[in-house]
Protein 1
Amino acid sequence: MAQKDRLEQIRQIVRLEKKVVVANLSNQFGVTPETIRRDLEKLEEEGLVVRTYGGAVLNQTESSEKIDFVKRSETNVEEKRAIAGIVSEMVPPNASIGCDASSTVMETLKYLSEREDILVLTNSVKVIREMERSRFGILSTGGRVNRQSYSMQGGVARSTIQEYHLDMVLISCKGMSMEGGIFDSHELEADVKKSLIERGHKVYLLADHSKFGRVAFMKLTDLEQIDVVVTDRKPSDEWMRLFSRNHVEVYYS
């Protein structure tokens, strides 16, 4: 049986039974446990499963929260454009900018399409495809492509990012809470964002009002690692005090 056929059958089993065991799959498909572990690693990269000792379980959080790029780009459009307009005015001359694969960051880059003095490093397949006629320079992180989020992930992407110093980093998130910090819904995407944060001189979090008070699958970073929050409406006084204590600048439309 070809790997793609085996993977599709494993996907069906996971969705039906919610969990799988390496030994059982090895016997069922007549392949070694190592082969099954590699299959489960691939399915984890897709976001379908979370590997456990001896097997894997259906990623319930990912299944409910993960929305493909097209759907995300059609959600809260006006809010994203308001945020993008603010951020675009903050980009200094000759800036190097690290960008994640979020739809909000994509909107920001549309505002910057005529800026030939800036250089963008991104793991977004959409940016590379749709902004090819823009005047700014584009560098790709490379990496394994996640076809649902149109992003590049994995060790290659992280290693590429480590080679650069970035004046600005633009990221979004799935949620942020006062107690827990900043959250994202996909581990591999979060790893890329963490690498961007590490290499950024100044980190900008682009988050509309729906992200406040929301917790997602995994923690991305602490609020103290963020320099600037840009949102579409003024946060509550409690949030503003929290930002002030963590020395975070806040801008809103």
Note: The chain has a mean pLDDT of 91.
Protein 2
Amino acid sequence: MRLSPSLTIANDMSHYNNLNEVEYLMQKCDNINFLWASLIIEECSRLGLMYFCIAPGSRSSPLAIAASTHPTTTCISCIDERSLSFHAVGYGKGSHRPAVVITSSGTAVSNLYPAIVEASQEFVPLLVLTADRPPELQDVGANQAINQVNHYGRFVRHFFSFPTPSDEVSARMLLTTVDYAVHIATSSPCGPVHINCPFREPLDSSPKPWERSCLSGLNVWMSMAKPFTYYFQVQHPFDCSYVDSDMAEVLQVIQMAKKGLLLLGAIHGEDDVWAALLLAKHLSWPVVVDILSGLRLRKYIDHISEIDNEVLFIDHLDHLLLSDSVKDFMQADVIIQIGSRITSKRISEMLESCFPCSYIMVDKQQSRHDPMHIVTHRVQNIIHFSNYILKAFVPHTGNQWRRFLQTLNTMADWEISLQITSENSLTEPYVAHTILDAICCESAIFFGNSMPIRDADMYARNTPENYHNLAIKLGSRSCHYIQVGSNRGASGIDGLLSTAIGYAVGCNKRVISVLGDVSFLHDTNGLSLLRKQIPRKPMTILVINNHGGAIFSLLPVAANTERNILDQYFYTCHDVSVQNLCVAHGVKHVRVSTKMDLRDALLTSKSQNVDCVIEVNSSIEDNAHFHSTLRKFTRQAMNHAMDSLSRISIPDSIFNGSVLYEVGKMEYSLYRVQLCSPPTSASANNKSSAFFREGFIISLSLTDGSIGFGEVAPLEIHKENLFDVEEQLLFLTHTIGGVTIKQFLPLLNGLFSSWLWHNLGIPTGSIFPSVRCGLEMAVLNAIAASEGSSLLNILCPQTVEFPGSSLLDVRICALLDSNAPPEEIASIAADLVNEGFAALKLKERLFIYLFIYFFYCHSKVIVTLLQQRK
């Protein structure tokens, strides 16, 4: 067995004839300092601590040399102890094993403080070995000597200061101390431990005699490759009598839930993710997933999500809560939170508004994680908790609660996607929306604080992937998910780049890191870590450069503070060149300003075997404006959806299913009407003297006897004809019988396309526009007839009273020609409103689409200005 080139012991001591192990050590260790350092490093390696982060310094020379020359260790160095320590934290986050940080004495020790705070708050195991001056040099003005005893206070789980190396102290003390320190660091609550190591000179390998009696009792240890002290932790199953009654109370609370909500916070272990998924499937509750759960980012196979059919994920609760109506609706009576920390402030406020309710917090760590003081039950083991609940019967209740949330989430998803994709410019939400396209299931992602992690939590989109091993499958033990890392312990902006690089080393995956420009500038020394020759996969680092701290533009302070003060003391605006920083460190740099540039850069980076910094050009003002636009339109969509859903009567008898209507049959008939002039959609080559409008009338009957009608009128501009259209109608008559219609179909915004695909197997692009229009009109009219309402009241949730009493008799909209003067058009429109028309269609030669609200006679009338090219 090799301890280091300077300290070697054989597994079989007989190889050395009559030379015992103590005599062998005497030959290889020149002084007591190197003996102690070698023993410390060897015990670390036996405990599985193989990654050493070494800061340059003289006092730590024995430790640095022992670590760097050990045959099983991987070592990295950095000129900045702050970057180095955050790198160690990142390694711990990615690997779930402690890294070892070695520093010299003095302020080098203090430079580790921010990283130790993060490790403590995030329960990241870490071993810190700080070299120190001996006692006789303390408090006497000696160079580089400060008080390092309990230097990190309560932010470390354990502190121990070795005596100065001496052959009068048993070497067993070194081994047992290291064993205990690592045990504390890796036991719940995990975290950093600090061992202070004072050394007297010589700090190099200069010979200095020492007594071999200090190695007494190490014969067995030397003959094996195991730690000196073993620590065993006995896990008590949840069916033990002393916990059975407590868990029975928790189970009873869950079984009595009417509006249960499962919230997945920061979950770091794959087994814990698997347990949470099985619990979600078993409970059948809506599941709110935080970006740190690893399940907010999901990839699917062939556009079909097996898991989404089993687990109802609510990805956009943050933006659902922009609507006051949704806030009032979100009154869960039982909440189970798996994992710590919630990124969204709006969700946290919603959880507090649900109180008093039963709030069950389940996490592997012992900390409270109860900032709102609403936790009523605390369970400290995710896997055992899930196993216990899985063995019990939990009734599926609150189907309306599930379906409402499912519909709202779908509406929010469509609205957010529409706004983000329709915006031509490259926006920061677009980066979050498309980031999943750049990674695969074997990749990981690390988000910086401030805006990057918040944008990802709000706007990330899940995408399908043709991949033989599904990202998440409940039908097998395999559970692949997108591993997500961040520094949310203290949520600082320091050390994020270094943490991300350490995270890539620890998880051994290709990592994409998304950072803000201020965070990037705060840790530019971390760029030097990219050039270190350590085993890891290439990284892609996205730097969102809005030339300042954009998050402050979204906070109340921005509305009440002068711009010059904001720029100087909040935004900290800058013109630092990210490109020049990358060039200085020899790191590839790409700057993007358009959506296409970003897609190309991400695709190129994904295919190349080099690190790359992609700088996304943005601005504080544009970012604040677009975020405001997203919130505005999502709020409107949620208000509309809630108003519409609240108007739909859902009998208690269908709570065990999601179906409200069922199609009985569909029929169609041909019509032909002569016109006095050619229709505007006719071909310019049409020289006929007689003009007709011809098509089909669809009659769609529901099983409750309600009938809806729709018109299918093929248009030449869509390259349709009666023969082709009738073929599709004939197909529909044979397939639509028995098809179900969910109660929220009238909300539109893409729901009809989804219904066509999932219920009829018809892709949206394969159905003729006129057939889709007629079928959609027939379905909506049938729903209106079933509800005893008008089509307008089905589509528009507000109750509108129009002049006259014949509103329900008006089956078509009015069409106005825009050639007349505006005053004449307005007069005609007013007359049509008095007649009871609810919608007016206005042709406009300016080739633009306008949507306005027209108020007349105290009534709200939707006037659609529809462009048609002639």
Note: The two ends are 88 Å apart (CA to CA).
Protein 3
Amino acid sequence: MSSKLRLHATPGSLYSAKVRIALRHKGLDWNEVEPEGGYRSDAYRKRVPQGTVPALEVDGALIVDSEAIVEYLEETYPAAPLLPGAPLDRARIRSLSRFHDTALEPAIRALFPSIREGKRPPNALIERINTQLAILERIAKPSPLLGGAALALADCGYPVSFATLDILATCTGIQLDWPEAIRQYQGALDRVPAVDAVLTPYRDITTKWAEAALGARA
């Protein structure tokens, strides 16, 4: 008997989108709910003390943090694997996923306060992102994805971050130094059905948020 999966998530959450990509890739069914009163509300914190999204309930048990959730899905539903077989290859994929979560995504998230204030992000923040993109080019070596032809765990976070960068660059006019290899990797990701299905609504929501934030202060 399969477990009942209940995902606490918000439409514009990058890490919620990361988990949706993994769920779709594995062909799993899940029930998705938005946090009651928002993820910072007392009501939500009673259920999820960390007050973060995504959070996955599995038959009443709670898993918090997108990486932990995707690792759980990989261990529990091995079909359509997100990790290769060899230990060193698995470690490489996990390392690239951690680079996304601890280096690239925080650099992107640092842009959000400027967007909310209707300001152009400072050059220092733009350079921080360019630095992380350059590092990614050196360590990723996609062919065409990070684990080869099939989607891997590390591939679940990057497409959402790349889409976010494109949207924010368009809305603010900032110029980013995209390595050609990373642009090609982005194109390969966008052609994966699970990625495309998640990115289509995410792009619309994020674009409307950025335009509204900047327009309100124009």
Note: The two ends are 55 Å apart (CA to CA).
